[in-house]
Amino acid sequence: MAHIVARKHPARALPSRLSQTTAALALMAAPAAFAQTASTDPSSTLPPVKVKAAAENEYKADRSASPKFTQPLVDTPQTVTVIKKEILRQQGSRTLSEALGNTPGITFQMGENGNTQTGDAIFMRGFDTQQSIFVDGIRDIGTVSRDVFNLEQIEIVKGPAGADIGRGSPTGYVNLATKVPTLETTSSGSVTVGSGNLRRFTVDANATVPTLGDGTAVRLNLMKEDSQSLRRDHVENGSWAFAPSIALGLNTPTRTYLYYLHVEQDNRPDGGMTSFGEPGYVFNAEQQEALTAAGVTSVAMPSRSNFYGSLSDFNRVKADMFTARIEHDLKPGVTLRNISRFGRTEQQYVLTGINAVNVGNRVRNRDGTFTPAPAGVSAADPSTWIIGLSRQGKDQENLILTNQTNLNAEFKTAGLSHSLSTGVEFMHEKQTNVTQAVIGSAGVANLYAPNPYATFAPVGPNGQRASGSTTTAALYAFDTLKLSDAFHVVGGLRYEKYKTTSDNIVAGTAPNTLAPVSLSNADDLVTWKLGALWKPASNGSVYLAYATSQKPPGSDSFALSATVDNANNPNLDPSKATNLELGTKWELLDKQLALTAAIYRAIVENDVVESDPVTKQPLQMGKKTVKGIEFGAAGMLTPAWQVNAGLGLMDTEINATRSADAAQEGNALPWSPRLSFTSWTTYKLPMGVTLGGGARYTRSTNRNSNTTNDYLSQVPSYWVYDAMAAWEVTRNLSLQLNVYNLADKFYIQSLNNGGSRYTIGAPRSASLTANVTF
What we know:
Number of helices: 5
CATH class: Mainly Beta
Number of domains: 1
CATH superfamily: TonB-dependent receptor, beta-barrel domain
Number of strands: 40
Strand content: over 45%
Radius of gyration: 28 Å
Largest sheet: 22 strands, antiparallel, barrel
């Protein structure tokens, strides 16, 4: 669980900088030293000069990697959290989902309707953000788990951000900044072993190549990992990746970056653990009826290590991404950038999910009828109790082709300073799903003694297919107008024209037949943001900002639906979100510590709730409100003590639904904790020893609102504590020990909408890493 040691000041570069500094000081002191030899006056003796390198601020980021943010973060009127690679290395983070534990307000969802999530299924401020993940400002689609080995930093931008990214989540996005070559010659690597047979190896090598021209550098990042899930039988993970890159013209007016990423994963996925018997579990009416009739007053919870799947289950991912970025300084303060990318992600899996438990009860069908209890299952004999299985398959390909051109310019008009960022974007995204279906019945498993060696129903293509694409052309402009040193006005506007097409082959009306269905949706979107910022001091700001976003049908899956009241019906209007935010940001302790605070209110409208009973037209009366307060801190308290922390208070509500399910009215949004907290801190002791630790807290969160509270209705609150100790053995070798979940606290990381299954948060574990630098 360790990562690449990447130092901004490599060991071989440091002496040269010190020698330059010492030489300069010596030249400055030479006349005085000469005078001293000619004078016997003790008062003319100069004090000794001591040179001490400044401590590196590993937690505080000054700017976003995106050229659309024209000002430092302290002067950006929006909540932006940056997680630098140094924090990821210290924590031993391996995946994006793990890294996002460094910011409050993010939760995870397990999936429903026969679809168990296998990737970064993140919710932020109450809304699904899985399809609003970007790499270097370009959307990255696919339900995969992303590794952090090739990331410089992770940026979490909260609040509607349509002007930044176009269509997307109403409560923000995540941007991943890729490592690229620099003019430093340095190499590092890490070897990690740990609990769960964890074996991980990474390399980060950067070198200048003068033979290819001045300003040329190359970089290579490698990763290989194998591991097993702790306390979950038969769940395994394996992945490897490499990311070569070359940069031309560094430190010149024209800079070119060419970089490539290849990732492969081969995992045995986890279909989850049943919530049956967990504290807070509520039997459905039929289960309770059967248990009461048999005189059963208590039930045993199945072992949490139970694996209900097949040893033939698999999740294989293959991803390729090639990027070309060119930057040219037209003149001082004016830079033109162009970035192009082709990316392809393929994912195939067969996964065994789990459903409701049958204790000898009849089963209520959707039409209100009942199916008798299965033969041989008796409520009086727990050894006969069974759990329903679902066999799920996926064969999906995601393609993306994009070109973005951006111009940044600093200029003055009428005595007023402008910081302009404007550009044009073209993007084509396509997703193809070859429908996989279980051949026969998915079957059942013994609740307390599942058999992974049993014969499971096969999963394969059934002839159906879903193919969808979205083509986008957009223009945008952002400007920071400095009315004075103390008052800034920030504005952004984006015009986007898109077309989504969906060409599917679905089951026909006659048995064993197929039929084509083609749908399309084209429209224009206009989103904007406006902010006013006051700087009472050079190191702080107070701001008020308003922003909008829109999300048209088919945005998440490129799949349009002919169903009248389906949210992906092309005849529906886009959902719309607005956000009003009042905040303040300060850089304290000689600008080494960043403190932020913001209060916000976001409203999402145009949700589809039902069809009009007379006209049969959809009613887009749904409205959801998210309001809260968020605090953050990142940076150095002293040269030896660094800290990163965040606290989020959130209040959500579903209202104006006019829904047939009246139980939703006034309820909180699912997966939205009212209180969440995260922290990580390290302290450097003498002799090269660093100690660190952190705590994370998430208050209980509700699952989807239903008319019943069967099974688990919420994810319980939990605290998790982690610790780290590192020792610089030599100049080039350090050892790092990480211990996770020190108290071995059981907690639920994600729950499905129905509350019948969940994924277990990682139990206590440890890893030992050797970091080597050259």
